[in-house]
Sequence to fold (376 residues):
Amino acid sequence: MDTLRAIAIVWVMLFHSYLVGGLGEGFGALERSGWMGVDLFFVLSGYLIGSQVMKSLRDTGRIDAAGFYWRRCVRILPAFFVVFAIYALVPGWRETPGMQPWWQFPTFTFNLLFDNSDNYAFSHVWSLCVEEHFYLVFPFLAFVLAQRPAAWKFAAVCTAVVVGGVLLRAWLWTHEVAPLQTSGGNDGLAYLRHLYYPTWSRLDGLMAGVALAACRVYRPAAMAWMQARVSAVLAVGAILLIASLVLFDGARTAFWPCVIGYPLLSLALAAFVVAASGATWLARLDIPGAGWLARASYSLYLSHKLVFAMVERHLDGYLLDHRYLRFGIFAAATLAGGALLHYTVERTFLRWRDRRAPASATLSPPKVIQGISAAD
Fold:
């Protein structure tokens, strides 16, 4: 999975390079599509977290809720709060001056309350909000479904999430985005506020990852069958990805991309996750630097726009005629900034986490004693 995580973070940073001029002509399609790297992160999160939770349920019938949330908190919060503190306390370092009210960030409600097109500072935290909401809800949903496991129940939930998302986005586009496109209003803000940022509109990638995790844990033969045909799976993924790129290119706020584009993209990315898991040749592929990029991807994601802004102010218009040299300087500085956060904060807390463990608090099926449920 390191290769995919490395691709995801590089893709996202290329997308945000528009803040500092980007790579220029010849790389436009790659930069414009870089937001898809976030969707790749969603599929990976659904797959990895889903596998962890469902494996515990399969093997023990329980979930160590305290351990799960402890590990997630120590993994996410320290680096997040360091970067958030810089954004909140040092306005001059932001990529844009405006920022949403401070309380939306530690409560992870930014993606639900974003309402001002001038408040883009630290806006990339929206995807972390979606992930946090997923972490809060998924273990409980998985626990409930596992009490009387049945493939049709899981399929029904997956179908409800995907179809519900399609219908919801169609309704939101019709009532929130279309009127502004007709009147010449700020349809981009409406798109971000109602379709792109909110958790309920962006569950497709997470659900695709969870579906793969369920296949891996409960139907390993089916997963092995797909992995044995990795070339065909990659071909399907490539076709779906190209279709997604064509659908979204230059039309992200149009009806069909908003309504069916996200599940189509999620299917494409899920195919690549299948191809990169297990013992496939893609899983064994060792690209120099990919492992480090994967390990540092969270710190890079949090910090890269801050670094872009700081370097841009110091360059102050220099080297405009040397686009690739400028881009190389931005890339080197971004990697250095991400490494600083990764080694001083993220890894420090991860090592501390591994030396400590919270008291167990498990989700378990209720015991029945003399006909009386212990949950009553």
Notes: Residues 366-376 have pLDDT under 50 and may be disordered. Strands lie at 63-64, 362-363, 368-369, 372-373.
